[in-house]
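Hi C.,

You asked whether I'd gotten around to modeling the 270-residue construct. I have! Everything is below, sequence then structure, no commentary in between.
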Amino acid sequence: MEKAYKNLEFLASREARTIRILSEYLEPQARFHRYRVKDTIAFFGSARAVPADVAAEGLRLAEGAGDPAGIEAARRAVELSRFYEDARTLARRVTEWSKSLPSAARRFLVCSGGGPGIMEAANRGASEASGISVGLGISLPAEPASNPYATRELTFEFHYFFMRKFWFVYLAKALVVFPGGFGTLDELFELLTLVQTRKLEKPLPILLYGSDFWREVVRFEALSRWGTVPAADLSLFRFADSPDEAFEFLRDELTALYLAKRGESSRRAP
């Protein structure tokens, strides 16, 4: 006789789907409680961004090969690498500030999707500040499950996208969205919809990093001009173009919204 909870064939079956979904709620919840994680700042962005030195070397090799298409792709990688480095810097500064807060709980931890690109940059920046960070990974056939910089004890591999999104939303007190593709756009617009429709009971500052990219890719003003989005809802987010600008916005917003009334505001971070 075999106990039901030890029957792996059953647990992987259609009938046990509800149990698997519940596991992706309860197991992360237990770990967040164990490590005293109160809330996070979520970083979204392209999985294809690479560090500046890697991109520069790729361009050097492409130019040596003399392939026009390869050179153009390498130049785009160099341009995108700026956002990798900026995400890394911003995550480091956020983590240094978070560590200075006089709280028994861990506040405003850097949280990413746990994969490569901007996600890696965010976890890497937190690691360089000797801080812990969260990696909410997802099982995908063409992408590594996790990067080496997210804190191992707070690195997860989800099966269900919607459960991964739940933990992004549930813990986040702010959102920073770097240039990205379909996945990044999906995450951004789902969060914007939740804020717009007031399905979230908490204020959630949303920062779009890289104004040139976002204004070219998404014509937000056109949505308002066509009457499909109220003009007032364009204030649900703001843009930033430097780590300094982004950090100051996050620090000031989070202090005003979540710290000032509780007397938890820290010494001003450099």
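If it helps when you're writing up: The chain is about 50% helix and 10% strand.

Thanks,
B.
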